[in-house]
Amino acid sequence: MSVEFHELEVSAVIRETAECTSFELAVPPELRDAYRYKAGQHLTFRFPWEDFTITRCYSLSSCPDVDETLKIAVKRVEGGRISNWLNDNLKVGDSIVASVPEGRFVLDPETRSGTPLFLFAGGSGITPVISLLKSALRTTKRAISVLYANQDRDSVIYGEELNRLAAEHSDRVAVHHHFDAEGGYLTSADIHAILHHTDISEFYVCGPEPFMELIERTLADAGVHEELVYIERFVSPADPDRVESDAVDVISLEAPDGFSLWLNGRSRTVPYQKGKTLLQCAQAAGLNPAHSCESGYCGSCMAHVSTGQVYMRTHEALSERDVARGVALLCQSFPASSEPLELDGDSTSFRAASGVKSSYSKALSTLAAVAVFAFMVAGTLVLRLVH
Ligand SMILES: Cc1cc2nc3c(=O)[nH]c(=O)nc-3n(C[C@H](O)[C@H](O)[C@H](O)COP(=O)(O)OP(=O)(O)OC[C@H]3O[C@@H](n4cnc5c(N)ncnc54)[C@H](O)[C@@H]3O)c2cc1C
Ligand code: FES
């Protein structure tokens, strides 16, 4: 099943900074169900460009638990086609072609309400992060630390809203700003300074590549289990006029007759049709794994290769570490050897690709519950002794 696209009308344009504009999008009543979303998800947009179509993703900075209207924020990228076009041209009343919401950079509903939440944002990476923040504040009792890095004070997007949320929830929210212009680039020491409870917290990271790399490395050095770290990479697909031809002839690759795909808690056997991606084969077999851009840059179709080998045409949405850990994009993958191929498509984050996360979180929840219970029993005993 391919992703649905619809025309949405721009209902408001808000200049956030000199480099960034928010756009509110009106959803007609008949499409309300299709555009229900989770905090942290994004829309994929199609733009006519010369004689072809360009696609780009933009995260929703609005929060379904709080905000009435869908909102995105687009920050200019130097030399970028669409970010500059949108900032310069899109106005109230214009229509824009947008997919229904997609993406796995979302809060895990299974997470215990007491699990601390760390949100790391760099520049425009604040868009899904502020949505997650608002959702966690409205729907959980979690303690939340936000680290937001920008070039300077004038580059801060949603600064007033962040300050207001921090003031209204000062008992459980701390927002730390970092400005390169004042203290130099963010360092591991700056991150360590705010970290606590690294063994039981969850971490969400979105920003420019060097920022993400620093946070991921620092968390790994601090011993954070990688299944507790969620990553959203802001990348563009190769536009049709910039696509490089396939380095590998996928038809000639050795392949098994089929592969197994773990989906919605069940393992399914999918026949492999030579030359088709694993996503296309799964769809032909009547399955509907999560997907959005189908071009390798949104990360919606991630799966973990448990056994066997795949060749990926492109994988902008993944870091080299993800690839080394066996994360694959179904929309870009083809079997690359005749050995049996097994994939797990049930993961919820870039890091939670092997299904370990839910069992790991459950184990943590159980440990925490046992600790709290033991603490209560000990407290009762002490009280009895005192009396
Ligand atoms: C899930 C997801 C969510 C996102 N959410 C947001 C968001 O909320 N806000 C936001 O601002 N962005 C977001 N992005 C990023 C966004 O989709 C675009 O990547 C970004 O706006 C840049 O697009 P562009 O068309 O302006 O730049 P592009 O035209 O893609 O160019 C990007 C850079 O690459 C260079 N470049 C690219 N190809 C070539 C080439 N062949 N030769 C030479 N130079 C090249 C350009 O000069 C430029 O510097 C998100 C991305 C993803 C995947
Ligand atoms: S659907 Fe976007 S990366 Fe595969």
The tally of beta strands, per DSSP, is 18
Strand fraction equals 25-35%
Question: Which ions, cofactors or small ligands are bound in this entry?
Answer: flavin-adenine dinucleotide, FE2/S2 (inorganic) cluster
Tell me the overall shape: globular
CATH architecture of the largest domain: 3-Layer(aba) Sandwich
At the fourth level of CATH, the homologous superfamily of the largest domain is Nucleotide-binding domain of ferredoxin-NADP reductase (FNR) module
What labels would you give this structure?
disordered C terminus, 26% helix, binds FE2/S2 (inorganic) cluster, Ubiquitin-like (UB roll), binds flavin-adenine dinucleotide, alpha/beta, Elongation Factor Tu (Ef-tu), domain 3, Rossmann fold, six-stranded antiparallel sheet, 387 residues, 28% strand, five-stranded parallel sheet
What's this model, at a glance?
The protein is α/β, with parallel strands linked by helices. It has helices at 82-89, 126-139, 159-168, 180-183, 188-194, 209-221, 278-284, 320-324, 356-386, and strands spanning 5-17, 20-26, 42-49, 52-59, 70-75, 95-99, 117-122, 144-150, 173-179, 202-207, 229-233, 258-263, 266-271, 302-307, 310-312, 327-329, 333-335, 342-344.
Plain-language structure description:
- This protein has 387 residues and is of the alpha/beta class.
- The chain has four domains: 5-99, Translation factors (Elongation Factor Tu (Ef-tu), domain 3, Beta Barrel); 117-233, Rossmann fold; 244-344, Beta-grasp domain (Ubiquitin-like (UB roll), Roll), CATH 3.10.20; 356-387.
- It is built from nine helices and 18 strands.
- It has helices at 82-89, 126-139, 159-168, 180-183, 188-194, 209-221, 278-284, 320-324, 356-386; strands at residues 5-17, 20-26, 42-49, 52-59, 70-75, 95-99, 117-122, 144-150, 173-179, 202-207, 229-233, 258-263, 266-271, 302-307, 310-312, 327-329, 333-335, 342-344.
- A six-stranded antiparallel β-sheet has the order 4-3-6-1-2-5.
- The longest helix has 31 residues, at 356-386.
- The chain is globular and about 60 Å long.
- 41% of the residues are buried.
- The model is unreliable at 348-387 (pLDDT under 50).
- The chain binds flavin-adenine dinucleotide (FAD) and FE2/S2 (inorganic) cluster.
- FE2/S2 (inorganic) cluster binds next to loops.
- Flavin-adenine dinucleotide binds next to strand 4, strand 5 and helix 1.
